[in-house]
Amino acid sequence: MASDDPQTGPALSHCGRLTHDRDYDRFLTALTAPPDRREALFALYAFNFEVAKVSDVVSESLLGAIRFLWWREALEECAAGTPRRHAVVLALAPEIAEGRIPKPQLDRIIDARESDLEHRPPADMAAMERYARETGGALTLAALGAVGAAEEGAAQALLNRIAEDVGAAWALVGLMRAMPHQLRARRRMLPDTLLAEFGVAESDLLELRPVPGLSSCVASVCAHAETLLNTAREDARTLPNPLIKNAFPALSSGVLARAYLTRLRRAGFDPLNQAAARPPVGRGLRLLAARWRGSL
After folding, report:
1. Which residues, at least 6 apart from 127, have a Cβ–Cβ distance to it below 8 Å?
2. Is 7 a domain residue?
3. Is position 101 within any domain?
4. Does a structural domain hold residue 87?
5. Which of 31, 52, 124, 223 has the highest count of CB atoms within 10 angstroms of its CB?
6. Do 208 and 113 fall into the same domain?
């Protein structure tokens, strides 16, 4: 964890390599977990990558729907103990069958990602947050199970709420950082209401024109993400420190989300500025320090 290219010891598994290559931020967060729980997180994040990329790689909505059906059936087979032969599925199977990774959260992710095939922008900030909760929030809830962060009663309910807030904030920040990629694919994730409020024309957005008002739209989304992170941090302070430390590997994307928010702020919340998407220096050290403190 001391550098952004950590020595990982033995050769990485398929899911570990996929996470390392395609979702390096979450790869780093997984390294904060006990060694015996890292593979579960790698499997979960590899699954997330596989379903998230579907809308980018298919040429027709029907083909995307077929792929999502394949994943739904694969999860059903995992729960039944009869997984199909696919590297990510085989890695997920024991975690699902033994109840550590909750299948309902994976189903939520598939449902949300299937909606990407429609290329329908969110109407308002509430709709954008719902999407963020169904993607990043559900994934973070599943990660709680993967690291064995289970409590009883009110403590678990609050921990779940913290996870959803952290995951939703991470998703919102990710959408802002990925905006150039989205726009080149003719997709727009900024809410209709923000475009209207700040006078941004969709035609200018889709042509990647640096128009006035765009930074204000992004700043509004980032402020919403920061509010979610602050709420999660305050809620976490009411729980026993050992519980938060145990759950930290699942929640640690919040630490990186704050670092990326700082990057976006320094870039003037201009999503077309390459500095806005550039990874913060010392991500591994940030995670290590936050894990030692047991803070989000």
Report:
1. 191
2. no
3. yes
4. yes
5. 31
6. no
Q: Do 125 and 114 belong to one domain?
A: no
Q: How far apart are the first and last CA of the chain?
A: 17
Task: Residue 132: name the closest of 185, 103, 183, 169 by CA.
Answer: 169
Using pLDDT thresholds of 50, 70 and 90, give the confidence band for residue 10. low
Dihedral of alpha carbons 157, 161, 162, 163, sign: positive
Nearest alpha carbon to residue 3 among 284, 292, 291: 284
79-126 pLDDT, tens digit each: 999 999 999 999 999 999 999 999 999 999 999 999 999 889 999 999
∠ CA 82-83-84, rounded to 5°:
120
Query: To which residue do tokens 């993607």 refer?
Result: 135
Are residues 292 and 154 part of one domain?
Answer: yes
Class of residue 97 by CB neighbours under 10 A (exposed 0-12, middle 13-18, buried 19+): middle
Structural contact between residues 35 and 147, judged by C-beta atoms closer than 8 angstroms = no
Burial 266-282 (b: 16+ CB within 10 A, else e): ebebbbbbeebbeeeee
> Exposed, middle or buried, 80 (CB in 10 Å: 0-12/13-18/19+)?
exposed
Give the chain's domain count: 2
Measure the CA–CA gap between 139 and 47, rounded to whole angstroms. Answer: 10
Q: Helices then strands (H, E): number in the chain? A: 17, 0
Residue 294 has pLDDT above 90, yes or no: no
State which residues form the domain around 83. Answer: 13-118
Here the CATH number for the domain that contains residue 195 is: 1.10.600.10
Q: Are residues 102 and 133 in the same domain?
A: no
Q: Indicate the pTM of the whole model.
A: 0.94
Q: What is the pLDDT of residue 2?
A: 36
Greater model confidence, 137 or 295: 137
Closest of 162, 174, 124 to residue 251, by C-alpha: 162
